[in-house]
Each structure stands twice: as C-alpha cells, then as structure tokens.
Amino acid sequence: MNDEQTFPPVSVEDLVSKVREFRDLGWRLVQIGAAALGDTIEVTYSFDLGGRLSNLRVSLPAEGSPRIASISSVYPCSYLYENEMHDLFRIQVDGMSVDFKGKFYRTTVPFPFAPRKS
Amino acid sequence: MPRTIIPFGPQHPVLPEPIHLDLAIEDEKVVDVIPTVGFVHRGLEKLVERKDYQEFVYVAERICGICSFIHGQTYCQAIETIMKVEVPPRARYLRTIWGELSRIHSHLLWLGLLADSFGFESLFMHSWRIREKVLDIIEATTGGRVIFGSCKIGGVRRDINPAAFQTMLAQLAGIEKDMREIVDVFLNDSTVKERLVGVGILTKEEAHALGCVGPTMRASGIAQDMRQLGYAAFDEIPIEPITRPEGDSHARCSVRCAELFQSVDIIRRAIARIPIGEIAVKVTGNPNGEYLARTEQPRGEVAYYLKANGAKNLQRFRVRTPTFANLPALVKMLPGCFLADVPVIVLTIDPCISCTER
Amino acid sequence: MASLGMTKLTLKSAFRRPVTRGYPLEPRRVIPDSRGLLVFVKDNCVFCSVCRKKCPTAAIGVNRNQKKWTIDRLRCISCGYCVESCPKQCLSLSTDIAAPTVTKDRDTY
Questions:
Q1: Which of B233, B253, B262, C48 is the most buried (most CB within 10 A)?
Q2: By C-alpha distance, which of B282, B302, B349 is closest to B72?
Q3: C34–B143: do the CB atoms touch at under 8 Å?
Q4: Mind listing the domains of chain C with CATH numbers?
Q5: Residue B280 has pLDDT above 50, yes or no
Q6: What is the per-residue burial (b if ≥16 Cβ within 10 Å, else e) of B166-181?
Q7: A37 and B37: CB-CB below 8 Å?
Q8: Beta strands of B119-164 (E only): which ranges?
Q9: Cis peptide before B10 (omega within 30 of 0)
C-alpha cells in the first residue's frame, strides 16, 4: 500500500495508442479522473494488472473548450467516465461510444467543477 | 416485432436507491437498455474547498450508508500515505475488524434485498434479523449503528477492551450458526435456484473488458481481491479470493455467501493476533502530494485519488466507487433476458447508487 | 429432493417469541457507550470556543460576552469531536435519543 506512484505525462496525440498498448498486455481500466488546477486540467488514466497500478496523465489548458480523444474504441466501458468529465469539467471528448450530450448529471449550475475565471 | 419502452425506476420497491433504466422490450424480452443516473448527485467532491482535510473524514464517511466505514478508512489511508504517517499496529487491526463487520452487514443487507427482488419476503426478513445482531455488535463497540465515526487520521478514536472481544466472539458464533441456515436456503432451495441459475451470464472476457470489480468479477472467474494489496492488517492475515466459474446470478450470490464466512474467519484471526499498544498518533501539518488509494469494499474495488499542495484544504478529491465500474456490465447483461428477471439482474451487481453519484 | 431449509426456519419462527420489540409496551434496550444526545454542564465552562471551532457541522454557538452556550440539536451528528476537545470536560454524550420537534430552534444554556 505504501508503494511509490508515478504519473508519467503523455500527449493528447499519443493517448489512444498508449492506452491500446496497455489493453493488449491485459491491463484493466481502473478510473479516468480529471482535476482542475488553476489554468490547467489534468486528466489521469489508471490501469491495474494483478494488483499493480499504472497511470498516464494528460495536461490540458483550461481556456476555451479543451478537447481530448475518447478511448471507447479500446476500452468500451470508458464512456461513463468520459460523460462525467464532460458534464463536470467542460472537457470535449470526441468519439464516445455512448454520448449523453450533457445530460448525464443534470446539475443546476452547468459544468460545476470547471475552473472559473474570477 | 413492435417495441415498447418501459421505465424501470427511479422509484421501485426493489431498488435501495434511485436509478432509472429505459427498457426497450419486444414481447417480454429486453432488447436494449438506456441508463440514466444523477438522482442523488450531491457534489461531495466539491466540498473539499470548504472543509479542511481533518474534518473531511466525516464527509467521506457519509458518502454511503452501507459501506460507510471503508470509505472513511480509505480516505484516512490515502492522507496517511501522503503525509508519511505510521499508523500503530493496534489501530490497523481494529480497522480490519470493523471493516470486516461492515462487510458482513452489507452482504446480509444485500441477501435480504435479493430475496425481496424475487418476492421471497420471509427470507428477506430472516436475513435482516441476523443483520440486527451484527448492528448491535457495531453499536456496542463504536457507538453508532450505521455511521461508525471511529476512523481518524492517524488511527482510530475508540478502543475495544478484551472483555468486549470475548462478547463479540460469542455473539459471532451465534450469528455464524444463523447464517448457515439462511445460506443453505439461498444456495439449495429449488425455487430460489429457478430464479437465479442461468440468469444474467457474464463471461470472463466480458468481465475483464468491461472493467468489473468485486464479487461481480470474481463470480466470472477472475481471482482478484484488493485485500491482497496488504493494507491495514491484511499483510499479516493473508486471504484467498473466492471465485466461481459460472458467471450467472447464482454464482454471484454464492460468492457473497462464502465471503460472509470468510469475514467471520478474518475477524477471529484478527482478534487472536491483535497486539497491545496505542490506538492513534498525533498528526500535525498539512498534506502535500498526491496518491491513489485502493481498498476492497463489499461491492468491489474503490479508488480514492487525493491531491494536496500544502494548504489546509485539499485540491482535489476523487472517488471512483465500485458500482460505477459495474454499471457497464449491467448494460451488457440486460439485453436478452425476460422482463421479470430485470430486478434480479440489477440487484446482483449490488447497486449502491448514492456511492456512485457522491 | 428439494432442500427443506426454509420449512425448518419457518417452523422455528412460528413457535418462538417474536424478534421485534413490543413497542410501545416494551422499553428500548439501551446499549452502553452508544452515541446519543450531547449533555452540557455549565459549571466549569470558560467559553474558550474550542468546541465551536471543532464542530464539523457548526451546531455549537458560544458567546463569551453574554456567557451563553447554544446548540442546534438538529445539526448535531453526535460525533464526539467536541467532547474530546473540551479542556474542562463540560461535555459528554449520553445514550438518550433527542426528542422529536417541529421547530428549528437552538437550545440555550
């Protein structure tokens, strides 16, 4: 439980091919999570194989509408995480296998976790 | 063949928490399902901006009512790893004992709901009668029946003295005897088997590709249990994950019934080996760093991602609960089944929707 | 041959006394150490406000000038944080349950 965890960065273009490498080796998708930190949004992908944890991190600029490619072609179950990321953080995900078009979480304030320019 | 759309939920007698499924059916067989979640979304992840990291244990415990202790325990473990705090051994054993009691009460609750889903009300009441005895043990040792309030950063808040341990062992022996009676009904009664065997089959490859966790995954043959990671006292009490090869609802029920007895065994082993010592260490300062902690809840693997930068409030708190990971499996299992099997299949993934939507 | 486990369970519960409590004739069985109502004893209180700062739901109010201590009973979650942190041991948790109420007012001592 006290192992060192690393979050190696990956670019937006290499994301799908790196994720496909994980899938071919038999890793299971654990979570996809976003964190809004000021002027960047960090998206972390976590994978598990037999108890070992591996991560990938993509950093997106918070201005405008950050875009990222969907990994539903590799892991079909990722559409839930990507819809959640879109509804909470205003991240455009291209190519989701099931797209709820912003109606996954119906909140009174749209995109509640997105970084605000205040 | 004309299609009808039937809404299932959010209010349904069988569901413990609200989830909405639009079922497209053709003449009694389900062909498609569209899930809608978001009825219990409370935005708890945003509350880190208001409450500092020590107070947040109370919020983390209240994400869910059924699996509340292990939520608090995982949060404390993640903060303790970031701040490099060494938890005393007695506190780790106490957390293990309470975690396994929490697992027993959650599985008994689930068994009752499963019996209710195919209409077997008296078996539902028997399961919950036994659960009341477990809740009495929990109230006597922690002070609360559902929300334990005993984890804090650096250890636990209350101790259990040896006399209380002896009472707990005696009560557990009675509970185990009662559990054997109802597990016999769940696994061997012919009417129960008619409703469960062959319903909602999930193969091993599908379970792996869809990212299932917990008993849903173990009932399809994948042997993985997060307690093997060795957190709390599990590095000194090794366990074997319980698996079944069939992948249908009967297998999922059978895995959870076997886990009941495994948990009683773990509690006995922990009580026999618990060391004397203090129960908490003092924690000062603020956390700085990030960590992803994973533990085994009754429903599967929960992943807590925390990021801190030295302030009193955390920067980011993200929970990926096991039901969130099991929802794609539900969407995969439902097409092809009869309308009357829908409540049974929804319940076999053990949905805890308030966890899913924090 | 089908299992007769359920028959055995049903016959047992038919001939035993019921498990449920005979409310309202039977009183509630009290488990010691259970966390219930917060009890405040004003004699030793110095109005240091540590309990107000530690309360996670902001249920406690302390007014040093007027020497008043208030609590909102509906907000209190009986966590016991204030009990642990009071330097004069004025607070304790009893096993009683708060009485039902129809208004949201604060208890003042």
A1: B253
A2: B302
A3: yes
A4: 29-108 (3.30.70.3270)
A5: yes
A6: eebeeebeebbebbee
A7: no
A8: 151-152, 155-156
A9: yes
Contact between B95 and B232 (Cβ < 8 Å): yes
Residue from the list C9, C33, C80 with its beta carbon closest to the beta carbon of B185: C9
Question: What domains lie within chain A, and their CATH numbers?
Answer: 15-94 (3.30.460.80)
Residue in chain C closest to B55 (alpha carbons) equals C56
In angstroms, what CA-CA distances link C30 with B140, B204, B310, C33, C35? 10, 49, 44, 9, 11
Q: Read off the pTM.
A: 0.90
Q: At CA B111, angle to CA B110 and CA B116, rounded to 5? A: 95
Which of C23, C8, A32, A76 lies closest to B123 in space, CA to CA?
Answer: C8
Tell me the pLDDT tens digit for each residue of C38-77.
888 888 888 888 888 888 888 888 888 888 888 888 888 8
- Smallest Cβ–Cβ distance between C3 and the set B55, B123, B185 belongs to B185
What HEC string does B233-302 produce?
Answer: CCCCCCCCCCCCCCCCHHHHHHHHHHHHHHHHHHHHHHHHHCCCCCCECCCCCCCEEEEEEEEEECCEEE
Residues with Cβ within 8 Å of residue A73, at least 6 apart in sequence: A16, A95, A97
Quote the tokens at residue A118: 């205040």
Which residue in A has a C-alpha nearest to residue B304's C-alpha?
A31
Instruction: Print the domain residue range for B166.
Output: 4-356
The CATH number that applies at residue B222 is: 1.10.645.10
pLDDT in tens, B198-241: 888 888 888 888 888 888 888 888 888 888 887 888 888 888 88
User: A43 with A58: CB under 8 angstroms?
Assistant: yes
